[in-house]
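Most newcomers find our protein records easier to grasp once they have seen one. To make this concrete, we reproduce a full record directly below:

===
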Amino acid sequence: MSRTGILKERFVPAKVFGKSIEDDGEVLVKVEAVQPVPSKPMSVRVRSAVGTAVVLWQGVSEAVESEHHVEWTVDEGIDWTGNAWPSPVSAPALREDGDRIIFRGRLSLAEDGGAVLDVGGTLILFDLAEPSLPEGVDGSWVEVHVAQDYVTVWPYEL
């Protein structure tokens, strides 16, 4: 079976305001409050086994300061050499760089023209911008840099 077929059997994402990323039911993250910014949606600091980042929160405020399974939504596609490129490191990571969130993971291409980034067990769906990705990128380690305001987490219960 192809890698894409395996991904489709293992991962059935929910669709919420764009492309979804969802953990596989085994990855818990710690959600912590951050200083609110007037006129912006609520943000939280997400701490995972592979790193930390401040992102938008779509749960109730009472759910902050605890561990959750979360679905991630990233509303920015992969633009090869614009916001994504090969990683010199073969290990998953989540971090911030200014107003950008950096995801490092193993990239798999989907038959529908999208891509899935596996970041330490969390599968992240991305659209692909034109031009298409270079040959040989499927299965490789990449870094994707996206605007912080385009990354949202949604808590859910198993």
Remarks:
- DSSP finds one helix and twelve strands in the chain.
